[in-house]
Amino acid sequence: MPERAAVIDLAAVRDNVRHLVELAAPAAVMAVVKADAYGHGALPVARAALEAGAGWLGVAHISEALPLRAAGIDAPLLAWLHTVDSDFSAAVAANIDLGCSGWELPHIVAAAQLLNTTARIHLKIDTGLGRNGSTPADWQEFVRLARQAELAGAVRVVGIFSHLAVADEPARPETDEQLAVFMRAVAQAEAAGLRPAQRHIANSAGVLSRADTHFDLVRPGLAIYGLSPFADRTSKSLGLRPAMTLRTVVSVCKDVPAGQGVSYGLTYHTAGPTTLGLIPLGYADGIPRIATGGPVRVNGVTYPVVGRIAMDQMVIDLGRAALVAAGASMIGAEAILFGPGDDGEASADEWAVAAGTINYEVVTRISSRVPRVYRNAVPT
């Protein structure tokens, strides 16, 4: 095992996907593997998700989709976030579906014409999130142009989609408002002659809490990795299993007197004689610098990080009693920052609280300096 590792349990990914497939049925599941599968590794996760019944894969950028195709994955694959420098020709040539908000349409048409083929596109309507997607005011003209391109053979409109803004807060009314806008947009597209087979708007929170958002296809991301999108519901309560365990070993263990300062700024001083343990993970590895107090589990005991987290390391206060119980030194002992909770380790949610952020960010930001180690790569 490497001295630092993000251990990814692909059996957990498969279990989570199977659960989501069951919840979403009869809608198909698009496993969202953008951002290197939320830090878990796009290719291994994509394969595991497809093995477990996902029918589609989704990424943000074409540059994330092309390596999946190059690795031999031929499942339906959607990329939806583009710039003027996006390689539409490469995407069309690789049979990658493209999200289209309006401005991209002539670029996609040009790429299809250059290749003498038909591009597959999903039209996006902005139902209230305010990011990409056609505004309702521009929608009918956008639909007219898309239908025109379809009749010319340059594109095939296979989907219409949007994205939910507050589905992680199920009591809020904006989700109902977004659904109403979405359904009007679909009706307008169909009235113009389009026949999209895939209507999709549901993210993880939508899949887990709003069956009326499922339509033909759902796009879970966070839930695939076993994490909860809700502030008041745990992974376990949702039938999910966290797939990532972040672990290392204690690299230094030393006795210090009372009043010893710890880390930059000396924001922490020891209350009495104690033992400090050095954990060789820091913000260069993706641990938020602000997450003082984050939990680290060593030999079955959880210790909070004390002092500021540095670029490469952080410190925990082991206490004298802990050191004696461990038999004089903990150097080399396994240190787990977060995991599925099976052995009492902390969760990514607890690190999110310590950092004042969300669990999405905690797992996604784990850097490439931390090797990924895969377990259960072969389905059983």
SSE topology sketch:
Blueprint: E1 4-9, H1 10-24, E2 28-32, H2 34-38, H3 42-51, E3 56-59, H4 62-70, E4 77-79, H5 88-93, E5 97-100, H6 105-115, E6 119-124, H7 136-151, E7 155-161, H8 174-191, E8 198-202, H9 204-209, E9 217-218, E10 244-249, E11 252-256, E12 261-262, E13 268-269, E14 274-279, E15 295-298, E16 301-306, E17 314-317, H10 320-326, E18 334-338, H11 348-355, H12 359-364, E19 372-375
Helix pairs in contact: 1-3, 7-8
Protein name: Alanine racemase
GO molecular function, one term: alanine racemase activity
Active site: 34 (proton acceptor), 264 (proton acceptor)
Question: Can you describe what's shown?
Answer:
There is one protein chain. This protein is an alpha/beta fold and 380 residues long. It folds into 2 domains: 10-226, Alanine racemase (TIM Barrel), CATH 3.20.20.10; 244-375, Lyase, Ornithine Decarboxylase, Chain A, domain 1. The protein has helices spanning 10-24, 34-38, 42-51, 62-70, 88-93, 105-115, 136-151, 174-191, 204-209, 320-326, 348-355, 359-364, and strands spanning 4-9, 28-32, 56-59, 77-79, 97-100, 119-124, 155-161, 198-202, 217-218, 244-249, 252-256, 261-262, 268-269, 274-279, 295-298, 301-306, 314-317, 334-338, 372-375. Strand 15 and strand 16 (301-306) form a beta hairpin. Helix 7 runs parallel beside helix 8. The model has no long low-confidence stretch (mean pLDDT 96).
